[in-house]
Amino acid sequence: MQLHATSSACGSGNRNPAEVLRTLRAAAASGRFFFGQQDYPFYGVSWSYEPERSDVSDVCGDRPAVLGCDLGELELAKERNLDGVPFETMRRMIVDHHRHEGLVTLSWHPRNPLTGGDAWDVSQRNVVHEVLPGGSCHDRFMGWLDDVAAFITSLRTAEGETIPVLFRPWHEHTGSWFWWGEDLCTSDEYKELWRMTVDRLRMRGAQIVTVYSPNPCMSSSEYLERWPGDAWVDVLGLDAYDGDGSERFVSGLNRSLAVMDSLSRDTGKPYAVSETGREGIPEAKWWSGSLLRGIGTYTPSYVLVWRNAPDDAKPGHFYAPWPGQASEEDFLRFHADARTLFLRDGLPAEESR
Ligand code: BMA
């Protein structure tokens, strides 16, 4: 546990969106990034809901500095999210992670409001159109946004202060596997959906730092094709997965980061690898040989790998090692690498200001 602001992973407190942004910039300016994982405190490959446990800390003795959680099915007023995580547990762990000065990011895989299917239901191509003003699902959808805002504003410290979160809606929109994907709406519709979402959440008092997350992009015009506008995006994100352990991931990640690095200089906004990973991590040296090599000399502010699903729920669906896993030793090198920041690591005082 770190009690001193200057010796904790995430700097000076992260009490509001401006401080979160300052923390991200400080990490990048020092050539380091916060390591994160989706759902890390809830379950691992061989366990579920054990206090203080995570697969990452079982391996290296420290927790990820970024906690990712997903709000999917909050909009149905369910007690658990789409992956079975109780929202009460999520809230408790977010408060705990924040108390240790970690950063929190929320994604959202909402149901398809038109068909009632899941986020991956792309059977109807007019869903975004129908949630925008004048559409048949608009009113209900605004209620969903209010549910999200209510959850975010309910995240409070023991002293009652609100906890700011990195909010990352409508991700991977340059693919067409979600109902908000590229082939399912026009650029203008996508931008309007984004602005409507962010405006509503802010209007309801949600303390959010917004993250825009396309898939790998080879040019700035590709990256910016559905950019909602500078006032609606705080962090330049990227979702880039390694599908086959090949050089394609390394070069695609490196090329995308080159694009983002240059946009970051133009806009002053930090950038991040908002989702990445190699499912099952069969390559023993994936962390140094693929991920760190793909990052190269670029300076993302955080890098988050996806979840370690319990083996009995989704076998082989994990993105961080556990004791005995093939990439464990290399992950220990990754943890020790000067570029990575885990929850207990510190930014020197002058850099965290
Ligand atoms: C996907 C998979 C799914 C999960 C979804 C939302 O990438 O991990 O099993 O339901 O993310 O967390």
Report on this model:
By secondary structure, this protein is α/β, with parallel strands linked by helices. Helix content is 32%, strand content 13%. Strands 1, 4, 5, 6, 7, 8, 9, 10, 11 and 12 form a ten-stranded parallel beta sheet that branches. The chain has a two-stranded antiparallel sheet with strand order 2-3. Helix 8 links the parallel strand 9 (239-241) and strand 10. The longest helix is centred in the last third of the chain and has 21 residues, at 247-267. The radius of gyration is 19 Å and the shape is globular. It binds beta-D-mannopyranose (BMA). Beta-D-mannopyranose binds at residues 70, 72, 82-83, 109, 306-307, 314, 317.
Task: Provide a short characterization of the protein structure.
The protein is of the alpha/beta class and 353 residues long. Helix content is 32%, strand content 13%.
Give the topology:
Elements: H1 17-29, E1 33-38, E2 43-44, E3 47-48, H2 55-60, E4 66-70, H3 87-99, E5 103-107, H4 127-131, H5 138-153, E6 165-168, H6 187-203, E7 208-212, H7 220-223, E8 235-236, E9 239-241, H8 247-267, E10 273-277, H9 286-295, E11 302-305, H10 328-336, E12 340-341
Helix pairs in contact: 5-6, 8-9, 9-10
Residues 70, 72, 82-83, 109, 306-307, 314, 317 line the site of beta-D-mannopyranose.
Estimate the helix proportion, in percent.
25-40%
Identify the CATH homologous superfamily.
Glycosidases
Q: Major sheet, described briefly?
A: 10 strands, parallel
- Number of structurally distinct domains: 1
Give the overall form.
Answer: globular
- From the coordinates shown, what is the CATH architecture? Alpha-Beta Barrel
- CATH fold group: TIM Barrel
Overall pLDDT level: 95
Total strands: the figure is 12
Bound molecules: beta-D-mannopyranose
| Strand percentage | 5-15%
Ranges where pLDDT stays below 50 over 5 or more residues in a row are 1-7
Using the coordinates above, name the CATH class: Alpha Beta
Distance between the termini: 21 Å
Run of helices and strands:
HEEEHEHEHHEHEHEEHEHEHE
| Rg measurement, Å | 19 Å
Structural class: alpha/beta
Instruction: Please work out how many helical segments DSSP would assign.
Output: 10
